[in-house]
Design a protein that fits this description.
Blueprint (H helix, E strand, L loop, with lengths): L1 E15 L14 H21 L7 H25 L2 H4 L5 H25 L3 H29 L7 E15 L4
Antiparallel strand pairs: 1-2
Helix pairs in contact: 1-2, 1-5, 2-4, 4-5
């Protein structure tokens, strides 16, 4: 008598999304929505602090303003995409990975830009550096949340469920001579 055992694992992934664009004000009450709004406000305040300074033409001020404005526009556009469920409509685009990489890069860029601004002996630059460091923390926390979501296999909007089933089959054969 010979026994033969075979185990198979079946993984089934179900993604549920609504394919139409709609306005959803609930997003601004969620943690990712609040973080995006905080980032937008901090970017704008830091930009204004540098711009009202007489020394805004210095290279460190221009660098800070570039970081602030790119962060402002990216975060603002992503906020609009989430508010109108554009990310859910185009759920095949890896929105969470894009945001994770952007937020990680902006954490580092804000650390550099804020350090350069803080080193200047100008009060407006030092105020901008404070808001830049706050933005650095916000972008870092957002990058951490996005990393956890990407690691868990989540999508930006909608829902995805993963089910695993294991099947074991044992076949016995009897040999007669």
């Amino acid at each position: 008598m010979t026994d033969f055992s075979q185990t198979a694992t079946v993984t089934q992934t179900t993604t549920v999304t609504q394919p139409y664009i709609r306005y959803d004000p609930e997003y601004v009450r969620s943690i990712p929505g609040i973080i995006k709004i905080v980032c937008i406000v901090l970017n704008l305040i830091g930009f204004i602090c540098i711009e009202v300074s007489y020394f805004s033409h210095l290279s460190r001020g221009s660098f800070f303003n570039t970081v602030a404005m790119l962060g402002f526009w990216f975060s603002g556009i992503m906020l609009v995409f989430y508010l109108f469920h554009v990310c859910e409509k185009f759920h095949k685009i890896p929105w969470l990975k894009i945001e994770m990489y952007f937020c990680a890069a902006w954490t580092l860029l804000y650390m550099l830009a804020s350090s350069l601004a803080a080193a200047a002996n100008v009060e407006a630059f030092q105020a901008a550096a404070f808001f830049g460091y706050c933005a650095m923390v916000a972008y870092g926390y957002d990058a951490f949340l996005k990393y956890k979501a990407v690691s868990a296999g989540e999508i930006a909007q909608g829902s995805r469920t993963v089910q695993q089933q294991q099947q074991q089959q044992t076949i016995s054969t009897v040999t007669t001579y």
